[in-house]
# Entry
Amino acid sequence: MNILVTGSRGQLGSELKELSTTQKKQQFFFYDLPELDITSHDLVDHLCHEHCIDVIVNCAAYTAVDKAETDTDAAFRVNRDGSSVLAACAKARNILLVHISTDYVFNGDSCVPYREIDKVSPRSVYGISKWEGEEQIRQIAPSYLIIRTSWLYSAYGSNFVKTMLRLGAERDTLNVVVDQVGTPTYAADLAEAIIMILERCNPAASYQKTYHYSNEGVASWYDFALAIMDISELSCRVLPVESAHYPQIAPRPHYSVLNKSSFKEDWGVEIPHWRASLALLLAKIKSTGKL
Ligand SMILES: NC(=O)c1ccc[n+]([C@@H]2O[C@H](COP(=O)([O-])OP(=O)(O)OC[C@H]3O[C@@H](n4cnc5c(N)ncnc54)[C@H](OP(=O)(O)O)[C@@H]3O)[C@@H](O)[C@H]2O)c1
# Structure
């Protein structure tokens, strides 16, 4: 099976690349900007043809949530129009499209974990652009798996864990918001779940499913920061603050825990708890000495 991974230098793409070295049955082709811009139909189609692609895993996205509020056109161009291009190429060449989306499609007013069928109501430009990208795929691609995830972190790229490690080593105290609740997701776990899907799926079959995937458990950003300091044995004190005292440009959902029952039932897998996965990443960072 030939697999094209887009956005391959991002957090998830990099984790997929690392894991792909253990895969013997599949041939992976990793691309990112500037070699592959997912908004270019000609480029995507050319690569799909050249590598006889069976599955596209789309890890490419405009992910700068605050910047998207003013850089609106760019966010929609990548997240909506890029998804539409991939879906059209997938349709033309009978390719299965595995696409990653976000918990930010929900408004965060719930107090129980969101299911795939729950009403979306994104509040940020990023969330709207990702939702419209999902819809393009549902309308155009004959075979797709959309996986919504939340609070991604990894050894690669910039993320909350790395920021906390850096600030925790520099400062005595840190204020972290306590009234935004969700679930951190180690990108390596999501990458492993995607590889499992690739091993078990039949690219000639037709899939039309949306899934939720995050690590298990629930945390506020404050809980997450506390765990980072605790596991890393950093003495920095973490203080809980309300998001009203820490204004951000784009509105964030107050609650975005995802219900993963459908993913676990369909694929028969267990998902690691966020704290266990965080410990794995922190051990990896410690052993490599690279932040
Ligand atoms: N990060 C999170 O907390 C989070 C949470 C929920 C869902 N997600 C979703 O999970 C997926 C993976 O996220 P991630 O954290 O791995 O993202 P990431 O680290 O920002 O990686 C995205 C990659 O896509 C590339 N890219 C941007 N525009 C592109 C284009 N037009 N064509 C091709 N590549 C392009 C980026 O390149 P540049 O860096 O050069 O722009 C980057 O290498 C995304 O769909 C994201 O929306 C992320």
Remarks:
- Residues 69 and 126 are 7 Å apart (CA to CA).
- The chain has a mean pLDDT of 97.
- The first helix runs from residue 11 to 20.
